[in-house]
Amino acid sequence: MRILHVSDCYLPRLGGIEVQVADLVQAQGEAGYEVEVVTATPGEPIAGVHRVVAPMPFDLPVHPRGVVHMLRLMTARRPDVVHVHTGAVSPFAWMGVRAAVRAGVPVVVTVHSMWDPVTRVLYRGLDSVFGWSRWPVAATAVSRAAARPVRAVAGPRVPVDVVSNGLDLSSWRPRPGEVLPVRGDEVHIVAVGRLAPRKQPVRLLKLLHEARQRVPRSIPMRATLVGDGPARGAMERFSRSHGMDGWVSLPGRYTREQIRSLLMSADVFVAPAPRESFGIAALEARAAGVPVVARAQSGVADFVRPGKEGLLGRSFHELVVAVARLTRDRDLRESIAGNNRATEPTRCAWPNVLAGFEQSYKLATGQA
């Protein structure tokens, strides 16, 4: 099968969608598919990657004549299916949908983000103009939480399945003969993600600050918050003003191998964003055996059950209580960690993810 992936952003940019699409392309290639990518992200030439780039303000990944360029590419390459990846607002990706519909090529749209109320209004407006919900497309979302608002907007005409993000689970497990850090009395709390305002990283510091007040001083705590982004300055100011510099560190961006090593020493992983569509970093922590604290209404709830793989909260207060509880209760931490090390979220393993998309491709072919 020949697959053409369309994504606004792609390597060398590093973000959730970019890395996940690159991993999907690699997994499909290893499974025997013929895979290519078209993107509006500039960068060095990569085999199989077509860059449709125009000089835009702020380096926005979009092209004013993207439909024409992609229609020409689809006509020349003749893919069996076009797989489009969208975030909350992805103009180049939706140009890819229009080009595929015009070319008569089956098209699958994967929604990687949570559509908030403003985004839902936007897509309803676009539907009234372009009638996209009547196009012959199939859709997937990365979690049940992400699928709900898409179904509410698209209505019954567009089938929306849930196909999880993929992860090589074995790479996050302890390796044979690997010496793990010795657990002491100190509780190490970890979070990984882009320090962007929509992820509410300053609120994460507030959460840790309030949790520290609920934990006896006899229990030492430290936190490592990995990532970089525009909210870093605000986080540093909050940390200084609240006396957290002594136990909270902001080391910046880590490589995957550095994150893996960090998770080997972690006791608790925190993913507090309420609009987390999936939570690939939380999945990595869960695969590494770390108890996860996250929002019950986020995509993390697809692979974290309360008391089994971690603790879930529906509010900021409940997240504070969950972090404090895990910090105080060593037996609970070890019970959840043991369960995470002994079980695997198999629906997130690449063979199951590829099988899910294969079904979506067949559905899209029937739609076309």
TrEMBL record:
UniProt keyword annotations, A-Z: Glycosyltransferase, Transferase
UniProt entry tagged with the keyword Phosphoprotein: no
Organism name: Sphaerisporangium rubeum
GO biological process: carbohydrate derivative biosynthetic process
Any Pfam family the entry gives: Glyco_transf_4
Protein name as annotated: Glycosyltransferase involved in cell wall biosynthesis
Domain Glycosyltransferase subfamily 4-like N-terminal span(s) in chain numbering: 15-170
Residue runs in coiled coils: none
